[in-house]
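Z., the sequence and structure:
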Amino acid sequence: MEKKNAWEKYTEENLADLAAFSERYRKFLSECKTERECTTRFAAMAKENGYKSIDECVKNGTALKAGDKVYAVWMNKTIILFQIGKRKLAEGMNILGAHIDSPRMDIKQNPLFEDGGFAYLDTHYYGGIKKYQWVTIPLALHGVIVKKNGETVTIAVGEKPEDPVFFVSDLLIHLAQEQMEKPASKVIEGEALDILIGNKPLVIKKAEADQDAANGGKEKVKTGILKILEETYGICEEDFLSAEIEVVPAGEARDAGFDRSMILGYGHDDRVCAYSSLEAMLEVENPERTSCCILVDKEEIGSVGATGMQSLFFENMVAELLELVGEGGNLNLRRCLAHSDMLSSDVSSAFDPAYAGCFEKKNVAELGCGMVFNKFTGARGKSGSNDANAEYMGHIRAIMEEAGVTFQTAELGRVDVGGGGTIAYILARYGMNVIDSGVPVLSMHAPWETISKADLYEAKQGYKAFLRGACL
């Protein structure tokens, strides 16, 4: 089947709408590089669009009715939004789900050390990365440090033009003969991903010389860094014990190509689906069925923990919602979940002619050809897969075609070459209809990934159509 290129159908009005949406997304991607930053931004957008806190509704005993909009944030890393529909909740919801964590490096709990006249922060990489891609590029630090007294200090350094940046060093090519003979997975070891943060020893004043001598006069570069941290953020070395600091590529997402048809940036996986899902959720009014958008943490490491999709946060919030609309009870909860329809929104691999042998051309997504539906995911013999049924796939096709959404279907690479997973299988356990959908990405999981603005736009249009029309 021949794919349609979405660019060929746009009117001048479409192109203007696409450009404005793409710019909003590009700015979001540049400014929100952690799950905390995403959640804070999304909560603010929800409140600006009339959403009320579920917690406040529960506290005040506020009854909800059709048209009401509520949201909840969990541990500052996960957010869920609901808009109450005209039908009973027990008849199910239309759910958009995506994740807001991305591959990166995390600072360890005891990270600061000095070696060879340099000060470093020790890291542990998060999610699937090619470690060699993270050396010699400008890096930024984003996160929070929580002191023993409960005060939270926010860190975001490396993004402003006047900020310093950080980096991981690499071996010069002149001495790299042995290194170049190693497999790519071993060229840079995980424990070698230490962030270089300083080289200037602290200058000791005469009045402080005795104290310095008592300390052995060692680690003056590390001591200098600690003094800067104390003066700038009011923190000491021990405060790293209760910190969550992420190491991410520094710099803004950028338009790519002479035609500006693409966006190059960090974290398209999966913030491109999260942002387009959220905007779709905010734009759809008075849905027939209750709309839900859940944007979660920890997908890149298995959706684990209290803020991952495997936690009970989603189920708990649906239970609270049922109580607030007067449909409480475990049986209604089970009915609501089982009768729901969901788009599990995550990115898919885009065809790259430079690596054509890794793809099966008939079943691969292409940039510019619209949002992607992956009927199944998994690896090898569909291991670990969610596999949507044919009836649901037919229903989704009808929705997209009626709305004029350009879409394509795909698999994640050739059989036995690779594979991947999403949050889809977790929601499918409730018995609801779930299919993977999203945006194709070039260079997925690299520090800088690429998407097409057309695919971004079609995804948002597809999510809106789904919220309005899904009910199998």
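The chain has a mean pLDDT of 93. The first strand starts at residue 52 and ends at 53.

Let me know what you think.
H.
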